[in-house]
Design goal:
It is built from 14 helices and 12 strands. With about 350 residues, it is α/β, with parallel strands linked by helices. It folds into 2 domains: about 160 residues, 3-Layer(aba) Sandwich (Rossmann fold); about 150 residues, Rossmann fold (3-Layer(aba) Sandwich). β10, α12 and β11 form a beta-alpha-beta unit. The N terminus is likely disordered.
Length: about 350
């Protein structure tokens, strides 16, 4: 084992022990905040549930897309209920627009945003929920749940969850993918076992039409050619180096015999293009970016937020996974090919699998 891996392993072990030893303090703190106050020990019948709140405090963009299947299935399970969602920051709400949610709240949980957090909780406490769901049950989720009025509160069984939940469920590991594991919580509540689920972002016709016009205007007289977009950004060891990008793009250019439009997606972290011969596109609005990627013929990206954004929007994607377990974190979309061996990637079988050849 390399030195870096040994250091990372030691840090994970230290953090795990820290969390174990602080469970008692967390439980006491949760009880002080309100804990199980107002909870009912009996499970409400489906017909009694008229108002539902899903709590997910997390700032990772990819995790927002992984929450989509859970949100969609909650609405399918309780079609007559008003379903609300509590997220961390306002920008995250764009992922869940057009899904039919009654309200989307933002906790703004954090040391630097305590006044905003207090205002958010004050607003949330004006309502009482029949059912509160904690699909991932992090510490901040439990804190918010302790401060929220709810008759039934459900989460997976963890050392601190009983301090705020009326009911907890033992996690059975039925699904390998991170986005689907939380569906076990809904199966406990009556959802039939799920054969296949995808993270689906619902774009409006107006958003799609505007993106199509943007793309056509960008390409000009070349708009009739196939269009490949790519994004080089990623975190840590998920990054694909520029040399490999050059090789990968050269394969697709060769396959199309030069009759290919190539667009690099830029971001605040990737401000300089890989090649000045490529078109470039930058848009910080998640929904506009998703609509644009939906319009291109193919989008290639490492394991990072824009990949899961494009997949959720229904774009044809090639996901490059250099270190992540694809079974746990791969794209769920129907038009996606997840690649682990970048050197072995060949355009023809990938395009055939995506229905592009």
């Amino acid at each position: 084992m390399s030195l870096i891996k040994r250091i990372r392993t030691a840090l994970r072990q230290f953090d795990s022990k820290r969390r174990e030893r602080s469970i008692g303090l967390e439980v006491a703190f949760l009880k002080l905040l309100g804990g199980r106050k107002g909870r009912l020990t009996e499970r409400l019948q489906k017909s009694q549930i008229k108002r539902v709140l899903i709590i997910r405090n997390n700032k990772r963009i990819g995790n927002m897309f992984f929450l989509l299947p859970f949100v969609n299935y909650v609405q399918a399970l309780y079609p007559d209920a008003e379903v609300e969602l509590l997220l961390s920051d306002p920008w995250q709400g764009k992922v869940f627009e057009n899904l039919g949610l009654k309200n989307i709240h933002f906790s703004q949980f954090g040391l630097k945003t305590i006044p905003a957090f207090i205002r958010s909780i004050h607003q949330l406490r004006k309502h009482s929920y029949d059912l509160i769901l904690l699909p991932y049950g992090g510490s901040s989720d439990r804190i918010v749940a302790a401060l929220t009025e709810g008759k039934n509160v459900h989460a997976f069984d963890g050392p601190a969850d009983a301090a705020v939940c009326s009911h907890t469920v033992k996690y059975q590991h039925k699904y390998s993918h991170y986005a689907l594991g939380c569906l076990e919580l809904l199966e406990y509540l009556g959802l039939p076992p799920v054969a296949h689920a995808s993270a689906c972002l619902k774009l409006s016709h107006r958003e799609q039409q505007y993106a199509a016009e943007q793309l056509k205007q960008m390409l000009g007289e070349h708009h009739h050619k196939p269009c490949l977009a790519y994004f080089r950004g990623a975190r840590g060891s998920k990054i694909v180096d520029d040399e490999k990008w050059q090789v990968l793009l050269a394969k697709f250019k060769q396959y199309y015999a030069g009759e290919l439009n190539v667009i690099e997606i830029l971001s605040p972290d990737i401000a300089e293009p890989l090649s000045h011969t490529h078109f470039t596109y930058l848009n910080r609005d998640l929904r506009q970016l998703a609509a644009f990627l939906q319009q291109v013929s193919l989008f290639i990206c490492g394991d990072t937020g824009p990949l899961h954004l494009a997949s959720a929007a229904g774009a044809r994607c090639v996901g490059l996974f250099t270190m992540t377990n694809v079974m746990q974190y791969g794209c769920l979309g129907e038009h996606v090919v997840n690649i682990c061996d970048l050197d072995a990637l060949q355009p023809q079988p990938v395009l055939r699998q995506l229905g592009l050849s």
